Amino acid sequence: MTVLLEARGVTKYFGGVQALKDVSLTINAGEIYGLIGPNGAGKTTFFNALTGLYQRDGGEIGFCGAALRLSSPHEVAKAGIARTFQNIRLFANMTARENVMVGRHSRTRAGVVGAVLRDRATRAEEAALRRRADELLRYVGIEHRADDIARHLAYGDQRRLEIARALATDPKLLALDEPAAGMNATETASLKSLIEGLRADGLTVLLIEHDVKLVMGLCDRVAVLDYGEKIAEDVPASVQRNPKVIEAYLGGAA
Amino acid sequence: MDIFLQQLINGLTLGSIYALVALGYTMVYGILGLINFAHGEVVMIGALSSLTVIRLLADSGLPGPVVVLIGLLAAALVCMALGFTIERVAYRPLRNAPRLAPLITAIGVSIVLQQLAMLTWGRSYHSVPPLLPAATHEVLGATFTEVQVIIVAVAAITMAGLMMLVNRTKLGRAMRATAENPAIAGLMGVDANRIIGLTFVIGSALAALAGVLVSANYGIAHYHMGFILGLKAFTAAVLGGIGNLAGAMVGGILLGVIEALGAGYIGDLTGGVLGSHYQDVFAFFVLIVVLIFRPSGLMGEKLAERA
Amino acid sequence: MPRKSWLGMALIGAALALAPIVVGASLGNAWVRVLDFAALYIMLALGLNIVVGFAGLLDLGYIAFYAVGAYLYALLASPHFGIHWPAWAILPLGAAVAGLFGVLLGAPTLRLRGDYLAIVTLGFGEIIRIFLNNLNTPINITNGPKGIARIDPISVFGQPLSKPVEFLGITFSGVMLYYYLFVVLALGIVFVGIRLQDSRIGRAWVAIREDEIAAKACGINTRNVKLLAFAMGATFGGVSGGLFAGFQEFVSPESFGLMESVMVLCMVVLGGMGHIPGVVLGGLMLTVLPEAFRHGAGPMQQAMFGKVLLDPEALRMLLFGLALIAVMLYRPAGLWPEPRHRRELAK
Q1: Extents of the domains making up chain C
Q2: Residue C73: is it exposed, middle or buried by C-beta count within 10 angstroms (0-12/13-18/19+)?
Q3: In chain C, % of residues over pLDDT 90
Q4: Once rounded to an integer, what is the mean pLDDT over residues A219-233?
């Protein structure tokens, strides 16, 4: 099994608060890796530190066998890590198709001159871009909404569109931040099969999720964060029995 | 050395006026997150309306300072009504609109106020009757006038009063709470609309005072005086850390001093290439430098962008 | 393209071609001049539309680029330095220099958002104006507040546009000739704008406007793409400025005040941010209506009250200010917004 992503000692401070304490984890190529933990445990902070939205205060991240020293989100995206957001962040007034097309920005090249002259290369690229966008919309199951404005889409469809947009960047690792949040049981079930389909197509998925049932049913391995520290990392069944994890989830509430 | 002291005194005077105006910007920004672009024009209206009253009473036999005080009160009333109206008409309906919309209405309000002032008071420069004690004194080779002393003292007392109001009273607490989070403050029984209205009213009263003081300082007032003053006061607010009252005061004084010293020395510094008419460049330069290197200002908290 | 839109375009073309002849004959050359300015302002507004409308960066100092283009033309084609380059050499240079200024002014400000950016760009605009006003000492570069006069007119194929030409029995006056030049260039800029809007770059601009963080996560180098918007907008501003200088044969700092920036911004916002036909409408309206008002308000007051009660110029600005407020309150997306999306401002 090849290692796709290796985080070592990732640390992040907010003022005096240490939001991430030496978090290390390894994600293997082709697996679905869950990141869970109580509210405020630092899951999204880890996401942001991974995708370059936050500057890390310490630690290293290796990706595809090379150190990921990139500091800005667009470079991280280009390197092959795509993400979605906990509170959906679509380009609300663009169509679904346009949203996905924007996702391919770093995989396309046309500049101002090409845009104005519409030379053959630009036209070809634009046509390929459109085809790929429609393909991805079909893949996530919302091809019938391609020409609709993103903010007019139903909630579940917006989640799917965000995934399609992330897929458009041709990622090696897809990081999903609570994709099932706010979904009903039917929507969650179809999301689950979508994610399984992604894995079947060879993609590696990093999943932050609150829905423990979804995580346990879907993930190959799970890491648990609590107060910014990784307290467990294992297959779901054994994580579920880990006393520290039970303590974190129940003890925190008591 | 005497240039230094002289410019320091001038800068302090100008700076306390900037500080008063900056408070108006910073209070509104603190609560609404909005640049009240029209605030400078409110200062101008304050200056000109006080001037009208002062001229009416100039020959009434009342002592000069009393006349100025009456003029100030009249101007304060006009400006408070104006501030209240501006908020109601141009900002409140757009409170949930994107930020560009209130900025455009604010520009509209500025234009309207300027043109109304021009229609009312004409295009000419008005000289302000010297009713305040204007004797000059000399310290270490620098001169200062009693008007300057009055300006600094009045500004200092007013700002101290404002700090008391905001930090010690129930109203002040409600203002701070609304600035923190209007929705939560509302849940706690604070009438956010009332507080926002009051903020505009208080800021406008300060603007009226600043208008009276600035016209006393220069001895002239005209319909176009508000724009550049407002811009500089906004710079002062940003310099101090917008949203932060103490920051606005510090920023105002600092900007006044920087500007005065800059104007005093720019000729020497550049070997006579640039003259004192570049004075206005300093304010903008400071503004740009601050926003680029320390957007949260000298005393502002660092705001991290949320993901 | 379907036949119907060819027909529409032919009609628009005919109307544009005939407009100065009709207007000149019925209202006089002063009004053709107004049309010339309308075309210039439309070019400016389309340039600013890239920055504000597409990329969502509020620039209140845009007129500075107009000033750069205008002064460059003035310095390179006037007796001031005794240089007389042809317009066709200066205009592209002006575009390039203005674009460079766009990048230089844009680079340090791009981390700022919304109204902060507005204030900083406003500051930059004022700084440029102050320098234009004062760079007459110690070396006289800009000739200070007096401005630069006797600038060479623009020539096309050796024919200076300031001189009338006879063609098909019609005498085309200088303002008419300039009209044709400006309209052709404005159409060019419309074309460029439309092409850009529907392209990889245009989508990236809109994405940044809609959600900058998401745009970054999509692999967009937001800094570069924003700089590109600044540079493109500034380029259009620089071209318009050069045309302005050649047309007026005179430039002075007072043509480049904050009010001008505000005016161009209002054309964009009132017309319909990000929507090219709306911006064209905005530019046309805000040039022609105030002019009509300026001519009409005095005589109208005379007729109604027997004398001119209110300064028409002040009244014009007053109504302009009120219109800004009213449009924002009642049509926050502008008068002619994008029909497909009522974008951003429409809530």
Answers
A1: 30-270
A2: buried
A3: 50
A4: 92
To probe the interface with B, which of C329, C330, C331, C345 has the most B CB atoms within 10 Å?
C329
Which of C140, C325, C331 to probe the B interface (max B CBs under 10 A)? Answer: C325
Which tokens hold the place of A158?
């917006």
* Average pLDDT across chain A, whole number: 90
Mean pLDDT within C60-86:
93
Q: Is C215 within 8 Å of A91 when comparing Cβ atoms?
A: yes
The rounded distance, in Å, linking the Cα atoms of B32 and B38 is 15
Q: Which residues of C touch B104 (CB under 8 A)?
A: 265-266, 269, 324, 328
Burial of residue B292 (CB within 10 Å: 0-12, 13-18, 19+) is: middle
On whether the CB atoms of residues C94 and C154 are closer than 8 A, the answer is no
Mean pLDDT of C252-261: 90
For residue C218, what is the DSSP state? Answer: T
Residue A84 contacts B where some CB pair is shorter than 8 Å? no
| Chain B residues touching residue C131 (CB < 8 angstroms) | 281
Give buried/exposed letters for C4-41 (b at 16+ CB in 10 A, else e).
eeeeeeeeeeeebeeebeebbeeeeeebbbbbbbbbbb
d(CA A144, CA A138): 8
- Under 8 Å CB-to-CB from C324, ≥6 apart: which residues? B104, B105, B107, B108, B111, C266, C270
The residues in C 26-85 lying below 8 A from B, measured between CB atoms, are: 58
For the segment A67-122, what is each residue's pLDDT rounded down to a tens digit?
887 678 999 999 999 999 999 999 998 999 999 999 999 999 898 999 999 999 99
**How large is the ipTM?**
0.93
The reply to whether A85 touches chain B by the CB within 8 Å rule is yes
